């Protein structure tokens, strides 16, 4: 079977930063997509006190930060490996979607959306970067 015939499988899970419970709307169904297509994973929640949205990619046991953004008005900050084909679209503070374009087999992974307040974001970002170095 050729590489182009393989489907991609993307899983979506949600992580909520510490604090009170947050009501999250999500679809946990795996996304199956063809190579070179694009995929969009949505994330929404109900706590405007947690304006930071972070997206992670997990392969095996390694968890890698993809992007971090504050609210809907600031530009997202992408990690170098994800700047080209990954795009975070936020319609407002409580809603966002991660779009992956030009899919390839290396994009098969579990993707996590995390929401948090600033202090937790600093901790998570530092922890993730330290684990990857």
From TrEMBL:
It comes from the Eukaryota. Pfam families: V-set. Residues 26-128 form the Ig-like domain. Keywords: Immunity, Signal. InterPro entries: Ig-like_dom, Ig-like_dom_sf, Ig-like_fold, Ig_sub, Ig_V-set, TCR_beta_variable. GO terms for cellular component: plasma membrane. GO terms for biological process: cell surface receptor signaling pathway; immune system process. SUPFAM superfamilies: Immunoglobulin. Residues 1-21 form the signal peptide. PANTHER family: IG-LIKE DOMAIN-CONTAINING PROTEIN, T-CELL RECEPTOR BETA CHAIN. This is Ig-like domain-containing protein. It comes from Phoxinus phoxinus.
């Amino acid at each position: 079977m050729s590489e182009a015939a393989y489907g991609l499988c993307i899983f979506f899970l949600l992580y909520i930063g510490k604090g009170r419970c947050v009501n999250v709307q999500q679809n946990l169904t795996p996304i199956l997509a063809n190579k070179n297509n694009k995929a969009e994973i949505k994330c929404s929640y109900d706590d405007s006190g947690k304006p930071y949205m972070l997206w992670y990619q997990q392969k095996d046991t390694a968890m890698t930060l993809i992007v971090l953004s504050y609210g809907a008005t600031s530009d997202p900050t992408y990690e170098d490996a994800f700047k080209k084909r990954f795009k975070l679209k936020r319609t407002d503070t409580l809603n966002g979607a991660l779009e992956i374009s030009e899919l390839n087999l290396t994009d098969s992974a579990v993707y996590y959306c995390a929401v948090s307040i600033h202090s937790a974001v600093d901790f998570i970002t530092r922890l993730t970067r330290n684990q990857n170095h």
